[in-house]
């Protein structure tokens, strides 16, 4: 008796079930039905035992066995091990029966979150081995590992191919590294205010001699699940280092390179140490390497990841949060973790056309990131409209097919040697542009620092603009929407986004505004200006120099239009 039946539930044991199910399978096929083998996995059993004890856990398993025998009959069900059960039935009304089972189970476990995952394998020929059928049903069930409600998964051709592909990836991975089937492509990231390439992101591609081009979607998850991804990520770091050395050997100055990291990287090795060792051995500056970490990695183990982010940053590596907005808990993560930059997930942009809400949300998130002192990148920029919108809301950097797709190393090196046509930013200039990019044109705090009372009487949705001055010319680099509206209403002709020589700008500005702008740029003084117009209006502005480009000597000045009145006032220096 014991040999055939499970002691706890009284159901047939595994070996006996194979015998019974083999016979049932033949019977169903003879009747013209399609037999289906089901593999059941109860989630959360371990925690339940831990909380309520094994005896109560056993009672729960007995209750479950009663539910499946109610649906499929005593001799057609088995307990294979722990919380794993198997059953065979014909496939008619199968989903209905399984959903009734889920409903009954929910009544038993009540508020506890203990979903049942079911894998189903439908048998199409009498010659199918019942053991294989049970294995396949388990494989289908395993696909639901990350599902947290009771669900059903069918074993089908696609699943079979997926499994085959995963096996191929895992067994050929080492070879793919050695033979350099894995290539690193690079996607340039462009600075919004100067259109120059300011960073490049390294993205892995597997170019297989048999299977052809494989994109990260085909292998990243598999390597993560197999805990092998750290080898890929360190390989990518090695390729980046090779690339940086090549660019230096060409006499060019490279922009920072970013590498994507996965959660399991940190389980397998000391990632901070490994990357640092490699970069140091190559004699490269840490600022040339940026680490991209997704929000979900951080959320998976907050305190540990907080430490790792800090370690990277203390060593001088930049850390970016990738795919912001693709998961949960975005906002509180930002409050507690110190990143250098937030990269907005491309779904924000791709949803923009759906309606106004997308624009409102992205605008506010951008404002919030800027207020937190973070830089911003938006990925997935595919059109001129995307670019214009992002520039308008103050996104610092832009990445997407609109500029270029990820490119192989040869193409990237060509772009460096073609520096005449494609402009790259030099790292010494980067902090200057960081200041300009991060400057919040939707918040007056920069002006309020010490003169709060003076400003309280002015309206708060300020037209604001940033102007750049060289020795003899001036241009607008950034402005907010209310400034553009204000300028269109007020000035017959205003300075544009290209440099214009001082002597060509309209006489009106040249007399009452320009001298103060130049003085502010030269001396760094904060200046209030009252600019009088022929129609009797006076425009009150406040200006402050915010940064100096160490390479070109260009100075940038932020200007806020405080109010427009008909009073005539004089210029006041402060
Ligand atoms: P990610 O880090 O968010 O990378 C951006 C992805 O967006 C890249 O896909 C890139 O090719 C794609 N992309 C860029 N611009 C556009 C655009 O304008 N439109 C559209 N539709 N897509 C655009 P890719 O290379 O397929 O990489 C997908 C993900 O795989 C990456 O997302 C990253 O999470 C992961 N990944 C890629 N390479 C590596 C790696 O070496 N290590 C690790 N751990 N993960 C990697
Ligand atoms: Mg990335
Ligand atoms: Mg991303």
How is the secondary structure organized here?
Elements: H1 14-30, E1 35-42, H2 45-52, H3 54-72, E2 77-81, E3 84-90, H4 94-109, E4 116-122, H5 130-142, E5 151-154, H6 157-178, E6 182-191, E7 197-208, E8 212-214, H7 216-225, H8 229-249, E9 257-260, H9 265-268, H10 271-281, E10 289-294, H11 295-300, H12 302-314, E11 318-324, H13 330-336, E12 341-344, H14 346-350, H15 356-371, E13 375-379, H16 384-392, E14 397-399, E15 407-408, H17 409-417, H18 430-438, H19 445-456, E16 464-469, E17 473-479, H20 481-490, E18 500-501, H21 507-512, H22 514-523, E19 527-532, E20 538-548, E21 555-565, E22 572-573
Parallel strand pairs: 4-5, 7-9, 9-10, 10-11, 11-12, 12-13, 13-14
Antiparallel strand pairs: 1-3, 1-4, 2-3, 6-7, 6-14, 6-15, 7-8, 16-17, 16-21, 17-18, 19-20, 19-22, 20-21
Helix pairs in contact: 2-3, 3-4, 6-7, 8-10
Bound molecules: ligand C2E and magnesium ion (2 copies).
Describe the structure.
This protein has about 575 residues and is an alpha/beta fold. The chain has 3 domains: about 150 residues, Reverse transcriptase/Diguanylate cyclase domain (Alpha-Beta Plaits); about 250 residues, TIM Barrel, CATH 3.20.20; about 130 residues, 2-Layer Sandwich (Beta-Lactamase), CATH 3.30.450. Helix content is about 45%, strand content about 25%. The protein is built from 22 helices and 22 strands. The strands form 3 sheets. An 8-stranded mixed β-barrel has the order 6-7-9-10-11-12-13-14, surrounded by 4 helices. A 7-stranded antiparallel sheet has the order 18-17-16-21-20-19-22. Helix 8 packs parallel to helix 10. The protein is elongated. It starts with 13 loop residues before the first helix and ends with a strand. The chain binds ligand C2E and magnesium ion (MG) (2 copies). One magnesium ion binds next to strand 11.
